[in-house]
Amino acid sequence: MTEKFTALYEEHKRLGASFTDFGGWQMPLKYSSELAEHHAVRKAAGLFDLSHMGEVEVTGPDAGAFLDYALTGKLSAVKVGRAKYSLITNEAGGIIDDLISYRLAEDSYLVVPNAGNAPVVAAELAARADGFDVRVHDASADTSLVAVQGPNAEAIVLALVPAGQAEKVTGMKYYAADTVDLAVGGEAGERTLNLLLARTGYTGEDGFEIYVPNDDAAALWGALLAAGAESGLIPAGLACRDSLRLEAGMPLYGNELSLDLDPYAAGLGPVVALSKEGDFVGRAALEAKKEQAPARRLVGLKGAGRRAGRSHYPVLSDGAVIGEVTSGAPSPTLGYPVALAYVDTAFAEPGTEVQVDLRGKPEPFTVVALPFYKRAK
Fold first, then answer.
1. Domain total for the chain?
2. Do 49 and 161 share a domain, yes or no?
3. Kind of pairing, strands 25-30 and 4-5?
4. In what residue span(s) does the GCVT N-terminal domain sit (predicted)?
5. Where is the binding site for substrate, in residues?
6. Which of 53, 95, 115, 352 could be cross-linked to 367 through a Cys-Cys bond (beta carbons 3.0 to 4.6 Å apart)?
């Protein structure tokens, strides 16, 4: 597989990032300390390069009706300027990807799939467009995505926005988006970029995701770092992004979600809009699955000791295997190990005592309600 690099790769090298392969992309794993980056996002702010994510534009008179057919949610009901979390499944109800869709205008949406699935999702959407008056355009190769996450995120973004547009930022609700002017510098000198700003994220904190053409990504990155210098903003890599999303109980495709898993086992039943009119891909299979109690359910596990369960570690009850960990790590914020795991339905109730086999040594864990961490409003 050919290595892929984001438009910010040289910026990360200058900042001393350690890199890792993620879906074929060379992405910053951390810059200095993943623990420091984690705490910065919880207490101040972190700056992430998410340019490996996909961006698929869906436009045309049938855009809403088409996405109602192509995805599990009712995208036609989303108001302009708002976003919706949804799933794209196959005919068998298996999860191809989880994604966010933004309604930018009456006949215009931006669908954002995960990095490793972006080409597959773009191809699936194009294949499903037959018979609809829509245009499906994969803009991933031309688009960068930068995220500012943390309690100081709003103040940092406001520092780049003209006073006349400040209310666009301060009044923006969670899962909403709008275009704003952002002042950036660079070799071309001070200039303004009109960009899509979304109040979304994958950390459990307040924050924004900003979509920017590749050619302007470095200028935006530098402007945000400068604007946040006195607010505790630091660049943050994928390592802390994973520990942050785990504390927030957010699933990761390939760990908690896959083609072999359906939305109901993953606790994503509300994302499947069986009440919407008309057919959608996977509807019949998902209707049948809803009537069947899943053999296993996704749960949160809180460790009583210091050692963390990791992906694929067995979950036990009285020595018998009753599940498997999908993600796990020590929680820097909470101070104890946390994990996501699929366990037999009989053991999925919060308060149930189980063990995780940590390389031959069973350690006590308790099933708890998700998320593990929830920020103060």
1. 2
2. yes
3. parallel
4. 8-276
5. 209
6. 352
